[in-house]
Amino acid sequence: MTAGFRTWSTKWRRPAVAVAAAIAGCFVIANAAPAWGAPAPSAAAQDQQTETFSYTGSDQTWTVPSGVNSATFTAYGAQGAQMAFNGGYGGIATSSIWVNPGDVIHLEVGGMGLQRPPSDPAQCILTAPAKPLVHADGPQATASDQTGGWNGGGSGGHNGNCGSAGGGGASDVRIGGDDLGDRKLVAGGGGGGSGNLIFEQAGGGGFPNGGSANGDGGGSGGDQAGHSGSGQLGQGSVGADPNVVSGPGGGGGGGYYGGGGGQPGLAGGGGSSYGPTGTVFTNEAWTGNGKITVTFGGTPPTINDLAPRFGQAGSGIYVQGTNLDNSMVTTFGSTAVYGAICDSSTNCWVQVPPGSGTVSVRVLVNGQQTEASAASQFTYLDGPLTLSSISPQAAPPGAAVTLTGNAFVPDSDWTVVYFNGQTKVNTACMSATTCYADVPDGLPIGPGTVKVTTMAGSTNTLPFTVLPSVTQLGPAAGPAAGGTVVYVTGTGFSTTPGATTVTFGGHSATAVGCASTTMCTAVSPPGSGTVNVEVTVAGLQSPAAPVNRFTYGN
């Protein structure tokens, strides 16, 4: 097998739990067709089995054993034949499908395209020499014009002076009959290879569309509806016959809809893959003949919770359930992620792929896939993670502040606020745009910064000022003439003589002295009524609060 998909990795450090991880992920989109079959009870736990069906060039069947109500099918589309350049690779499609004991499932395994070697290549000016068929699964060359691989591969163009290459056949699973309309899962075949010196790329099988070949006139990939230029339902198109300078075009790959044939000298397009919701597709990834594997039995995985249930592409979540492992495939709606980092069979970290809205998360483990449930719903947060405002912009330790921004995670365990880049506090997030946090104790008074961190990363920083505070007065009352020695408890006081001042209703107290950063004494000035006692340090004043009120008596 040749892996033709891209990899994507990232690193994330979770609050309180360090996770340094890089996961290779393949992101492809699955068909929105409904899952086939009426719901049936889960099969009893038994030893898991996998049966492999290789290419034979004819219909094959699998009878569902007693006690089996679901099976996971993986179909591999066949590669197109090569000319000077390789034929397109087949697609791969994996899906768990409900079945019933005794059902006869038809399995059509695609054959690799055939190559008709050139008989007089000198006649074709722009044609490169054909390569011999060297793949272990590849069929021998043929003298026939019928070069399309079995199960829908389109033949290359006719007239073999320059040689031609057929498209690979699709591999598909048919339930309820053996017609094209009974196909429940399809892996598209690759287009026939090119002999052109310039445009060498053939299209491979894939979803939602097969790959298109290079060059103006290269075969178009099949789609889900049979657009103009592609092949027909289940059948790749025949490549064009040669012209005066180029050899025949490559045949289109078989598929749900086949790929288009190439114009003279150009490669064919790949056939489209197809499957029910949750199907895991890998595009343009398989070489040689197709195959189909059927996995059934064993204990299925479950999902009990997602943590968090909100996030952005590139962040991570913990999938919590049973029978999970590092090799599992996780789908977010119809987008798949290959691999996980598991610290046990009940807890795995998975990177979130691109997506939007609220989707169901499902996992595929050892050929069995979980069903969608309320516990497996994940909501994408729109837009970048940002912090736009803090209210108030200055407050003492213990005070609550409101943070406004975007893409916050509405779960206090997964959104963390950092004050001055070091001190972190958990938050209460009511929505993706509003969170509440308490200013932590122990911060030095004065200007600092605030930022918000989630599993997707960190926001910008905004300025925030930590104020001194008054938390208790003892006593909290005294005569109007003043002269009461009051113990002032709070935060952010300075022990430097003269650096901390105290006022009663705006009037300065006398004999202020601070034994620590949390305790001062002051003598009350004359006054009347109930007033606020406020402490000022380095030009920063404690805010008014019910606990710092002093009442003057007669």
Helix content: under 10%
> How many angstroms does the end-to-end distance come to?
94 Å
Summarize the main sheet.
Answer: 6 strands, mixed
Share of β-strand residues: 35-45%
Any idea what the shape is? elongated
Mean pLDDT: 84
Number of helices: 0
Given the helix and strand composition, which structural class is it? mainly beta
Low-confidence stretches: 1-46
Overall strand count: 41
Radius of gyration: 35 Å
In words, what does this structure look like?
By secondary structure, the chain is mostly beta strands. The chain has no helices and 41 strands. The strands form nine sheets. Strands 13, 15, 16, 19, 20 and 21 form a six-stranded mixed sheet that branches. Strands 23, 25, 26, 29, 30 and 31 form a six-stranded mixed sheet that branches. The protein is elongated and about 115 Å long. The N and C termini lie far apart (94 Å).
